[in-house]
Amino acid sequence: MTAPKRIGKQTVAFANPPVIIGRATVVGPKEGKGPLKDYYDLIAEDPYFNADTWEKAEYKFFEKAVQLAVEKANLTMDDLNYFLAGDLTNQIISATFTARGVPVPYLGLYGACSTMYEGLALGAMLVDGGFADYVLAGVSSHYSTAERQFRFPTEQGVQRNLSSQWTVTGSAALVLAAQGQGPKVTHATVGKIVDLGVTDNTDMGAAMAPAAFDTIKQHLEDTGREPDYYDLIVTGDLARIGHRLVQALAEKQGLDLSKNYTDCGLLVYDPSQDVHAGGSGCACSGVVTAGFLLQEMEAGRYQRILGLGTGALHSPISSQQGESVPGIAHAVAIEL
User: Fold this and answer.
1) By residue range, what is the domain housing residue 244?
2) Burial class, 148, CB count within 10 angstroms (exposed 0-12 / middle 13-18 / buried 19+)
3) Which of 97, 169, 272, 318 is the most buried (most CB within 10 A)?
4) Is the pLDDT of residue 180 over 80?
């Protein structure tokens, strides 16, 4: 038996590519001072977003992004068929609490910081497969909720390693449709776990880079494309260290990524903002994609983008027990 839409080992080629008809981004004040500030729909004045805890603030970011994305798609919540969402908090509570206001079937996802592209890939499969007309996919993250969960309470003032990254505070949401005008999701390459034994959970770029390169390489092999087919290849949140490692791995394998490869964790902040290695979090690839990348596509400056969500699939308990950090990366081709 052969699945007709599968090509190669890990890639799906969509027969009727879903269209991204709605997109929205809501970010915190630090992100609103970064180089992409003009691409966001809403910049909050404070990271609490008028809530009394960081966790409550995070799902307020999420709720606002969802509302804006659906409105910009000229739909109502009742028009949606599925809501695919995730975040970094325990039991993905930000996504689940946001889903209380989205009265459609909900699929909670956890791919760590790869969740935006995991949702895009699965949402596109639902639409192309004829199971949905409209799918909403979204993510959120928050610097303070992530620090409290995965590292140390911010009140403790722990000095951060230079390899550490700054979790993006914000949320992004995208609406996929079976028909319409806009950038199309043409291919999805679902990644596999790659774990080379990195145990330092403050160096996530190094932990995720091998998985990112593995998925890039597999996507190119499955599709028969060269790197220069894409105007831009962009990973989710490898930041400075992981970005360099992917380039080194590509060079070793004879792939030239020097001309068109970047990372959302490098784009979202300016180095002067003291974010050490760069940005991270579910919202890192989310707000860069739904804001900067898609707006640049709509303006005609990019025609073909290969975006990858990258995730470090560890937990506080696994790290405390000395486990390594498994990496994952999912690729989605977005084309005009």
Assistant:
1) 184-335
2) middle
3) 169
4) yes
Which structure tokens are listed for 191?
């990644």
What b-and-e string marks burial along 82-106, b requiring 16 or more CB atoms within 10 Å of the CB? bbbbbbbbeebbbbbbbbeebebeb
pLDDT at 156 over 70: no
Cα–Cα distance list, 147 to 54, 88, 151, 155, 167 (Å): 11, 10, 5, 10, 8
Cα 290 to Cα 183, 307, 311, distances in angstroms:
11, 11, 18
pLDDT in tens, 232-243: 999 999 999 999
pLDDT for 163 equals 72
Together in a domain, 32 and 48: yes
Do 168 and 233 belong to one domain? no
Whether 42 and 159 share a structural domain: yes
Alpha helices in the chain (DSSP H): 54-72, 93-99, 115-128, 143-150, 204-223, 239-252, 264-267, 282-287, 294-298, 316-320
CATH number, residue 189 = 3.40.47.40
Q: Which residues contact 218 (CB under 8 A, 6 or more apart)?
A: 8, 9, 10, 11, 189, 191
Tens-place pLDDT, residues 285-313:
999 999 999 999 999 999 999 999 999 99
Q: Which two tokens stand for residue 84?
A: 């695919």
> Are 245 and 198 part of one and the same domain?
yes
Domain end point (choices 128, 160, 177)? 177
Considering its fold, how many domains does the chain have in total?
Answer: 2
Region 269-275: mean pLDDT is 93
Q: Tell me, yes or no, whether 44 and 172 share the same domain.
A: yes
Residue in this structure with the two tokens 């000395």, named with its chain if needed: 322
**pLDDT value at 167 more than 90:** yes
pTM confidence score: 0.96
Q: Is the pLDDT of residue 125 over 80?
A: yes
Whether residue 1 is contained in a domain is answered as: no
How far is residue 180's CA from residue 185's CA, in Å, rounded to a whole number?
12
Q: CA-to-CA distance for 35 and 270, rounded, in angstroms?
A: 6
